[in-house]
Amino acid sequence: xxxxxxxxxxxxxxxxxxxxxxxxxxxxxxxxxxxxxxxxxxxxxxxxxxxxxxxxxxxxxxxxxxxxxxxxxxxxxxxxxxxxxxxxxxxxxxxxxxxxxxxxxxxxxxxxxxxxxxxxxxxxxxxxxxxxxxxxxxxxxxxxxxxxxxxxxxxxxxxxxxxxxxxxxxxxxxxxxxxxxxxxxxxxxxxxxxxxxxxxxxxxxxxxxxxxxxxxxxxxxxxxxxxxxxxxxxxxxxxxxxxxxxxxxxxxxxxxxxxxxxxxxxxxxxxxxxxxxxxxxxxxxxxxxxxxxxxxxxxxxxxxxxxxxxxxxxxxxxxxxxxxxxxxxxxxxxxxxxxxxxxxxxxxxxxxxxxxxxxxxxxxxxxxxxxxxxxxxxxxxxxxxxxxxxxxxxxxxxxxxxxxxxxxxxxxxxxxxxxxxxxxxxxxxxxxxxxxxxxxxxxxxxxxxxxxxxxxxxxxxxxxxxxxxxxxxxxxxxxxxxxxxxxxxxxxxxxxxxxxxxxxxxxxxxxxxxxxxxxxxxxxxxxxxxxxxxxxxxxxxxxxxxxxxxxxxxxxxxxxxxxxxxxxxxxxxxxxxxxxxxxxxxxxxxxxxxxxxxxxxxxxxxxxxxxxxxxxxxxxxxxxxxxxxxxxxxxxxxxxxxxxxxxxxxxxxxxxxxxxxxxxxxxxxxxxxxxxxxxxxxxxxxxxxxxxxxxxxxxxxxxxxxxxxxxxxxxxxxxxxxxxxxxxxxxx
Length: 732
Ligand code: ADQ
Description:
The chain folds into 4 domains: 6-236, Glycogen Phosphorylase B (Rossmann fold, 3-Layer(aba) Sandwich), CATH 3.40.50; 243-450, 3-Layer(aba) Sandwich (Rossmann fold), CATH 3.40.50.2000; 477-579 and 662-731, 3-Layer(aba) Sandwich (Rossmann fold); 584-659, 2-Layer Sandwich (Alpha-Beta Plaits). Helices cover 44% and strands 20% of the residues. Strands 5-4-1-6-7-8-11-10-9 form a 9-stranded mixed sheet, sandwiched between helices. The protein has an 8-stranded mixed sheet with strand order 22-21-20-19-18-27-28-29, sandwiched between helices. The protein has a 6-stranded parallel sheet with strand order 14-13-12-15-16-17, with helices on both faces. The structure holds adenosine-5'-diphosphate-glucose. Adenosine-5'-diphosphate-glucose (ADQ) binds next to strand 12, strand 13 and helix 14.
């Protein structure tokens, strides 16, 4: 069987299976994801893996087989059958009683339960097993939502070069909330298995990258996280709706009939619409209370306005949802008890799913849409309401705590906790002129039309493909045996050869302490260097950020050049001399007291005082503390040094204060690279990029980065071992 190219994975399949009177039934699952995927061009077979909505306890083996066959044949879906217990602990438990409340800032109702967590891990593994059956290293896999946060990591370990994308449909909370979850590390590591992580808005991207840095200690810049030998990209992809479907629906006869029905029933009364899944994050009780305040404050609207609430049942087995339903019903009864008259019921409440025609008719007929979530990843109802308003007017009242607010700023923006503010917004909406309403609607419609749900999915898939291309480009730089042979050949032909080799991280693996004993070169390395020096055609420079004394004690006996403190000190023929006349005392005296204070306040931090620079090492500081301290120290140093001749550099688990006119690039230029006919230059961190840049145009220069991040070097190798193996081929 040929392997499919594109695999979508979500907790629920776009098809739901149920059993009625012993017969299996298939219905489209609610939600826009199926539409979003329907016209995506994937250039091969598309498979959708997920749960069909019925537990395996309810099915016989032959029924399972029949479901599997039908779903595969008619819908391109692969079912994963969850047991009743898994549904209870994984879905209702960890997904909806831990992650959902916490990520929506309801920390007081989040449950932390080991059984839930064990089940979450088990089901993510189960999904991984099924995905693995259909995926290979060339597959594009798009995983959806908070139920499957471990899946990217599990898959990455098995199918290492597949393109894996993940989209989170709910908010990613700020770190202060996220840190409350005991399994935060595992969840982040799971997510980081992806190449591309999509969120609705930039705030969530920032919350995520901050959480990664603070929890795991990995650097993240502009949404790019350096994770092992990969780069993971996090970006905003605001989801949208099928604009065409909603905007054209109002002209369909069935919808028109529904609108007429509503007109005949409600006459001139103003209709305020509230549509949601019944969920505490949607602010339904806030909405009711604000409506009550509106009625209190505006007697002239009594009998003239109706709040129509339709809430679709959701997660009905979870306790918090049962409580919410009860509270809503009590509040509706209270308001209707206070205000209803013989011919007026102020709140009409329906606890049911509305078929599409009825829903669109409600959008079209309503004068106001009242959308008041206390947190919402995006909120599609707001967009659907705006899209439906083609032949009619209406006002959108929208909570500032939804992701949708970024794209719909023309709405009347409210804070759902401000009861009086929401009541005032209702009043304002009801008194707005048609012209004002139209002008706001047009601006919002234009925006949603341009970025509809198809654009959303296409954009995500394009970016996912780009991430893979970037990864492949990185891999393309890896030194293969063919490259190695070419480099050796150039070496053999050359008459005057230059070797510029960085030390820590290039010739010797990083050690946890800057102390010199631990970082001492092993005998095998000294032998390799010595062998290079034995050839009179070779000149060897060892470049390091370390002080002179360390390099002297390690390499003092060899006939090579030593460069200490990133180029500040140069030693040849037994003499050290400074490469610049910058007055080191002036900036060191500014930086030292600040760096000392931070070192004292930060357990695990070490201060290194070199003659030209001061280095603050935070490799052994816990990630969360390092994040906070490093940012503050960086800020304080930049401020203190603004008129000095020194700068602050952000290196590999270090902050370093050093002179602006000393870098490895300037150094290499002073060596006069044009006088050689073979150059071999290797390094691993940001300071080495200056060297690579300075000789980038020289075709006989081989520049190599140790590690797989972004680089200006021509080649990359994965580890110190690889560079040493390469060096050993010279002269052998
Ligand atoms: P939801 O929390 O389900 O989605 P939302 O984005 O508003 O919230 O989508 C609800 C969908 O259900 C809409 O398409 C709406 O038409 C439909 N719906 C709601 N009530 C209905 C009713 N009574 N009858 C019929 N249909 C009804 C999650 C996140 C959101 C995010 C989406 C998409 O919580 O923040 O916008 O995923 O990523």
